[in-house]
Amino acid sequence: MNAVELLEPTKLWRASEVLTQPSPVPAAPGVYGWYFEQAPDPRLPRNQLLYVGMAPRRMTVRASKQNLRSRVRYHYRGNAEGSTLRLTLGCLLGLELRRVGSGKRLTFGLVGERELTAWMAEYARVCWMQHDEPWAAESELIAQLDLPLNLDQNRHHTFYPYLRNLRSSARARARSLPVGS
Question: Residue ranges of the GIY-YIG catalytic domain (predicted)?
Fold first, then answer.
């Protein structure tokens, strides 16, 4: 697989560019990659591909309506419940995960999610490549590259135990706290 668009991107896109109308991100299946001008953890490098994701997810029961545009835009402005990238970044940045709404959803609350959105707008950059089978491309990339922020299919990475434990501890703490907003 040729992943030059992710490994040597001609452009890394900021939130302000991705969130415009019309968006430069195609409404197509593919894989996206995240770079950070400031690493979310001091042990991680800056300006290097740290995470890949895909859209849509391979679904056997129903077709997914996700595409590169909807997924990338969600990561920039959504919440930790719907974005494993946001969950990971928020935990690494020390934001407090909380139960919200009915108490089943876990996010960083209104204030924390706003802080994370602002941090991502300042430091996160994204690129993408269209691919008809993004689940296959993502698996291949995770197997071949050094992607410390990916957990799924990435147990071999040295950062995996730390990140898994950090996220697990944040979830456990959130479940012990009262429902917030």
Answer: 47-168
